[in-house]
Design goal:
The structure is a single chain. The protein is of the alpha+beta class. It folds into 2 domains: 4-141, Fructose-1,6-Bisphosphatase, Chain A, domain 1 (2-Layer Sandwich); 150-261, D-Maltodextrin-Binding Protein, domain 2, CATH 3.40.190.80. The protein is 34% helix and 25% strand. The chain contains 7 helices and 14 strands. The strands form 3 sheets. It has a 7-stranded mixed beta sheet with strand order 3-4-5-6-7-8-9, sandwiched between helices. A 5-stranded mixed beta sheet has the order 11-10-12-14-13, with helices on both faces. A hairpin with a 4-residue loop joins strand 7 (125-130) and strand 8. Helix 1 packs antiparallel against helix 2 and helix 5 packs parallel to helix 6. Pfam families: Inositol_P. Its cofactor is Mg(2+). It catalyses: a myo-inositol phosphate + H2O = myo-inositol + phosphate. It comes from Cecembia lonarensis (strain CCUG 58316 / KCTC 22772 / LW9). InterPro entries: IMPase, Inositol_monoP_metal-BS, Inositol_monophosphatase-like, Inositol_monophosphatase_CS, Inositol_monophosphatase_SuhB.
Length: 263
């Protein structure tokens, strides 16, 4: 394997550079330049240009790696290393001026995520982790919360963009959790949600209809912060399966039980 700690330091620089570009472009952003991938699935030139910037830089860091990217600026060639990138996670927030969005860069080696960097642009918060080395926020070690039960937990979630066939089941899960936990929050960036689990700002996060680039970086940050990640059946198909459940170890099972009652 390559020196992942060295790659991490280089990737952190790339994430910050991408964040600087996003921040600059937000000042004069024209909402008329937005494109629609779906009814409420939006993309801007900022997404595309940021992705190009990231891909160019990462190719220099790890020339032997493939890419999985949200905007499709690079393709997969079946190599052992794969960068999984969301250049602007929280595009809708960005477009509307809601300051909750991030740059998300994960690195997969064969079947496992081994590195993750998430830069929350407006808060200038850089979350990162390498397998076996712990999780960090701006240089400080972070850990998941110690909440012992759902009844003392704050839970984050996200809403689907297109998979509305299960929306009634999802709403039932929301109601069940509302009746059990301290509250629910929807930030609009799965990468940030996962990082907030990792640093204990929220105790758990769940969402469906997700893509690999939504979660790749955040997943390893949660795991390295001492948390647990699964799909909705306690399995490990959370990268490509579309379902993610992340929390501390104390509440994970009871959290999942509430979902499985209706899912």
């Amino acid at each position: 394997m390559v020196d992942l700690l060295k790659v991490l330091e280089q990737t952190k620089v790339v994430a910050k550079k991408a964040g600087d570009f996003i921040r600059k472009e937000r000042k004069g952003f024209d909402r008329d330049k937005v494109e629609h991938k779906g009814l409420n699935d939006l993309v801007s030139y900022v997404d595309k240009e940021t992705e190009k910037l990231i891909v160019k830089e990462l190719k220099e860091i790890l020339p032997q790696a493939d890419f999985i990217t949200e905007e499709g600026t690079a393709a997969r060639d079946g190599r052992s290393y794969t960068w999984i990138i969301d250049p602007l996670d929280g595009t809708t927030n960005f477009i509307h001026g809601l300051p909750v969005f991030s740059v998300s860069i994960g690195l997969r080696y064969e079947e496992e995520i081994v590195l993750g960097v998430v830069y929350e642009v407006n808060n200038d918060e850089l979350f990162y982790a390498v397998k076996g080395q712990g999780a960090f926020l701006n240089g400080e070690r972070i850990w998941v919360s110690q909440a012992k039960a759902l009844e003392e937990s704050l839970i984050a979630t996200g809403f689907p963009y297109s998979a509305f066939g299960r929306i009634d089941d999802y709403l039932k899960v929301l109601r069940a959790l509302m009746e059990k936990c301290h509250g629910l929050r929807r930030l609009g960036s799965a990468a940030i949600d996962l990082c907030y689990v990792a640093c204990g700002r929220v105790d758990g996060f769940f969402e469906y209809d997700l893509k690999p680039y939504d979660v790749a970086a955040g997943v390893i940050i949660v795991l390295e912060a001492g948390g647990k990640v699964s799909d909705f059946r306690q399995g490990k198909d959370y990268l490509f399966g579309g379902e993610v459940l992340a929390s501390n170890n104390h509440i994970h099972q009871s959290f999942d039980v509430e979902i499985q009652k209706v899912w």
